[in-house]
UniProtKB/TrEMBL annotation:
Organism the protein comes from: Pseudomonas pohangensis
Pfam families reported in the protein's UniProt record: HMA
Domain HMA span(s) in chain numbering: 5-68
Identification of the protein by name: Copper chaperone
Superkingdom to which the source organism belongs: Bacteria
GO MF annotation terms: metal ion binding
UniProt keyword terms in alphabetical order: Metal-binding
């Protein structure tokens, strides 16, 4: 893994705290040291992780939450 960087994603389909928990769990399964901040009303997920943005997008999509990069 690379040096941790902050990445911001717009995530579709987040509607509740269950969604937040599922997203957080999936991302931390990929990178246990990731720091994740979810802004549910805005539909944004800020991730500080050593994983590449493409990998995090894949994890989110596999969990059922398609996303796009806002800032990598």
């Amino acid at each position: 893994m690379e040096k941790p960087t902050e990445q911001l994603f717009r995530v579709e389909g987040m509607t509740c705290q269950h969604c937040v928990a599922a997203i957080t769990r999936a991302l931390q399964a990929r990178d246990q040291l990731a720091r994740i901040d979810v802004d549910l009303p805005a539909g944004l997920v800020r991730v500080n992780s050593a994983a590449a943005a493409a990998e995090l997008l894949r994890v989110l999509a596999e969990e059922g939450y398609p996303a796009t990069v806002v800032k990598a």
